[in-house]
Amino acid sequence: MDSLLEMGGNPLENSGFEPGAFDGLKLNYLRISEAKLTGIPKDLPETLNELHLDHNKIQAIELEDLLRYSKLYRLGLGHNQIRMIENGSLSFLPTLRELHLDNNKLSRVPAGLPDLKLLQVVYLHSNNITKVGVNDFCPVGFGVKRAYYNGISLFNNPVPYWEVQPATFRCVTDRLAIQFGNYKK
């Protein structure tokens, strides 16, 4: 049976979680949105498949933040203040299929996306991304990626779209999967 916990709309801060508060809970889905979290809580159940921490005040993802959440296939971090995702921090999520990082303050595509073999959907719209590199999404070489992307959103970023090489999206199912659009300041 899937277990689900919604804790949205509470004035929860990171200091508000007592160590072991979730011990013994076999949760699959947890949502703590519209709270006051400034970072990813490190002591949530490791059984989680879905973690939604949207509409908080999270500013960064540091290396160990996602260490215990290796079973996640959907991570929602939209509408935060994330400026930095430490290199290697996403490598702890080998089964991740969907990553929501829209409406943050990222200035580049997070490192490590090409190594996520099952990743299919990435929301990066409404950030401060100014450059998209040819290897930001797809691995170099063939046969590495097991699932092709079917959704990448990059609209509302100050990236000069005409400078993005077509090969950047060589592991995307079709062109319609990419949402660029125009940047409105």
From TrEMBL:
Domain of life of the source: Eukaryota
GO cellular component: extracellular space
SUPFAM superfamilies: L domain-like
Protein family according to the UniProt entry: Belongs to the small leucine-rich proteoglycan (SLRP) family. SLRP class I subfamily.
Protein name: Biglycan
Pfam (any one): LRR_8
Function: May be involved in collagen fiber assembly.
Keywords: Extracellular matrix, Glycoprotein, Leucine-rich repeat, Proteoglycan, Repeat, Secreted
Subcellular localization, as worded in the UniProt entry: Secreted, Extracellular space, Extracellular matrix
